Structure formats: structure tokens, C-alpha cells
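Notes from hallway chat w/ T.B., transcribed later so I don't forget. T.B. wanted the structure written out for a chain they're using in a teaching module, and asked if we could keep both sequence and C-alpha cells in one place. Agreed to drop them here.
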Amino acid sequence: MDYIIAAALLSHPGWGVLLAILLVYDIACQWFKNLKSRALNWPLGLKLPPSAKILPAIGKLHLPGHKEKDYEQFNLNLIPGAAQVDGESWAREDYLEGHFSSWNEEKYTGMGGSLWRSYRDAVKDRNLQADAHRGLTENLPTKLVEEWESLCRLWENAEYPKRGVVNPYVIPEANISVREALKELEQKEELRLKSGRPSYHQITASAFITLALEIQDAQSSKAGSNGKSDAKVWLPSLIQKSERDAVCLPGVWEVEAKLQEARCYDSLNAIRHTLRIKARMMHFKNNNVRGQRESGRSRALINRVYAKARRFARRYRRARVAYMKLVGEGAWEKTLRVLEDDDVRSYKDPALVKTGPGRRGLDEEEQVMEQQAPQGIQLVAPDRTAYAHRTVHGTGETRKEHSWIWTAGGVIDTADGGEEDNQILRAEWCRSRARVKRAEEEVMLVREEMRRTLAFLQHMADEWGRWHLRWEVDGKEVPKSALGEGLEAYACLMAGFQLRLRTAFQDQWKKPLEEGEKDDDEEEEEKAGLEEDDQDPLSRLEGMQDEDDDDDNEEEL
């Protein structure tokens, strides 16, 4: 310790003219006792200036552990010139450097796992976005899609500032007013009240089933009543299949099946139309309505519109259940899917991927334990969590998923709602296209990062190998002495470490993506398709810049 103190003082620019030296040391009470007598034996070049006055002190954090004897002599609060110095800066710096070094080591040795997870998530997101965008595109007129594609390319190729080109991502101002929307609702309500049900003397099967379905709709709109009008309407779908032929006339159940299928598609169209109206009203409210009273009225009106969408959703569910009972399972389920409450949303309100529970001091994330480190490679200290990583779930623009109702039932009617709705749909389609492009680029970038990581590890192994043959210190070759042999052994050790780490990364990246660990929420949600080449990212690392991704043939993860 004497040599360290003397050498540190010698390197000070004011060495030789120092008048006072404040030395803060955890055990200054012991070290300072015989300092003057020991200093007499120091080398001549390290002797303290005779004019220097040394003031020993103990850091404020360590001082409470000092004995009461001579306590005040080492108290920084009682030493003139100490100001508010606490004497613990070195300890904090050493503590932080220890953490930084540990995290750097974890990051360096954990790149295999982190890049593998990034690649897996990138492939999953790319396929999800591509599938959603493909479904939306297939249900739009081809001519309209080509026009929007041309607008996107013109915008992307335009130089900054992008003047004189149409911005395909902007959503135009809506011209609908709250009064007009209210007038439309009142007119439809008046027509419903004035409509009467005719009396049939001779009725066909289709008319009978249609009337029964109308009665069901009327009963569902009177929830909570217990009158005679709530008597159960025995449609063929409510009768057991084994008894249906004995109870119903031939062909009656087929008529109901045809009508129930049509009602499913009609209900989806009604939901989409109602959600378009809601989206336009929300856009108008957000841009034009101010004040608590007006906002409350607008919200009440918008809630009425959305209530109609939920009513159409209930009608769709009833029709789908009946159709299932009549025809059973089949390919039709891919188009007429189960309608959840979260699916009843506008194409302007895509769903976001769920976020994981947060942890103090970090972003929203979950900590997942990995496997043991490969043999011969110690990734972190034994008392630290090995292979810990953080999973941050995307919640922004790049993780949106559109509801399936906008891609079901054939081509979307772009004439419904006018030019303004078409422009809104255009903006959403263009943003969906952008999400696909960014997701594809992310897969390519992660592959390139993996390739460069392997190349870097090989480069470092080669560098350590060259140092093994010739070790220099300050530009001078170290002779074959004890120091030289030690440096040579260390170079061999580090070269082997880099190669083992590279091999471990390669082995980890060769395993299929579905073998990786999954969070609890991902067990049910991760069903995105993975290409055969995506299963082994290493097979695509070489020459990836000249390759194009093809997602047509996908397998279930």
C-alpha cells in the first residue's frame, strides 16, 4: 500500500509543491500509524515532499464501523478543507465497473441466445404480418391494390422533402357530422317501427324459416322479458339430427342451412358497415368536438352505433352455431370463424401483441432461464443468473394485427362509405404493407448480425493466435521469459475461448426454431408459419443479400 500511495502521488502534476494531502482509506487508522517511519526507507524518487501535510481520513460509509477511539481524527465532517467530500467515490466507481464488466461479459457470451431469439421472433412477426396483409389484399379489388402499390413506391422513392407526391399513409379529414349520423340512425329506427309482419295463408319453407329467424331476432332484442312471445322457436337446427327427418319435411333443414349461411355473411357486412360509421364518427369527434358536454353527447351517440355492431355480432354467432349443427365441421370454418368480442373492431383499430409483466428497473419484460452453458465456457460468475435474458413484447405500430372480419366474406365493398372511407382503407393497407416490409428487413438484418458475429469471433481467435506467436508490449517484443510464457499461455487460452464460443453459437443456431423456449403467453399464441429455410438460420447466412424471402409454403410452428 505504501508503494501505491507513493506512486500515485508521484504521478500528480503538483508533486513536489503539495502543501496538504487528504488521504481517504478504509483502514487509515491502522495504515497511518507508522507511515513517517516507513517513509524513511522509501526510494529517493518516491519520498514525500517535506512541506506536504498528510491528513488521513476514513470514508463516511465505513466510518461508523470504526472504534470510538480516535474516531473524530478520521471524520471528514471535522477535517478543515474536506467540504462535503464523502470519500466513497472510488468505491462506487469500483462497484459500477464490476457490474459493467459483468454485464459486458454476459452480453458477449450471450449473443448466441439473444440473436437466436431475435431471429425466431423476427421470423414469427414477418409471417404473421405477411399473412394478415395477404388476406387483406386478396379481399380488395386488384386494380385498387395496384394503384395503392404505385403510390407507396412513388412515396418511398421520392427524395426529402417529399413534396409533390401523394402521401399514402395520411388519413383524410372526415366530412360527416354528428347531426347527419344521428339523422341516419333515427330514420332506420323509424323504418323498423313502421315495418309490419304479413299473415301467410300458404307459406313456403323458405318464408317459414325466414319468419322464424326474424322471431328469434326479435326475441334476442327483448332480453329479460318472460312473456309468451319468448316461446322457443323450434327450427331444424334445434332438433337432434337423428330425429330431424321424422319431425321436419324433406329439404327444410337444407333451406335453413342456406339461410343461416347467408345470415352469417350479411351479419359480417353489417358489422363492417357499422364499424365504418363508428370510425368516421370517432375521427370527427377527435378533431372537432370540444368541451365536456359535447364530448359526452358524441360519446353516447358513438356507443349507440357500437351497440348495433355488437347486436349484429350476436346475430352472427347464432347463425354460425345453427349452421354448425346443420352441416357439421368443414372448410367453411376457415372463412366463417368464431367471432370473439375483440374481433369486433375497425380496420383502424388493429390488435396489439400482449405485453408481459414488468420488473422493477427494467422495461416491460419477463425473465426466462436458459439451458446450462456449453462445456468449457463460463458465461457468467457462479453466483449470477446464467443465461438470463429479457423478452420485451412489441406493442407499437410494427406489432399490429387486423381483425379477420375485414378479410372474410369475399372482396371488401370499397364503394360502401364513399371516397373518404376508401382513403382510410388505403392508409391502413399501406401501413400494413409497410409493416410487412419492415418485418422482412428485420429478418435479413438479424441474419447478417449472426453472420458477422461468427466472422468476428473467428477474427478474434486469429488475432489471439498471432499474439500467441509474437507478443509485444509498448512496441517491443517480449523475450521468452516467465512473463513471455505467461502471455503466450493467456493468448492460447483466449484463442480457444473464441473458437469454442463460435462453435457454441453455431450449434445453437442450427437447432429448429420450434425447439426454443417460449413464454407462457406464447404457448397458445405462437402459431405463425415458418419456412423450411427459416428453421435453420445458418443455412441462410451466406449470400443472404442476394436472396428474396418466399413465404408461400409455410409450416405450423
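Follow-up for T.B.: Residues 418-469 form the longest helix (52 residues). Might be a good example for the class.
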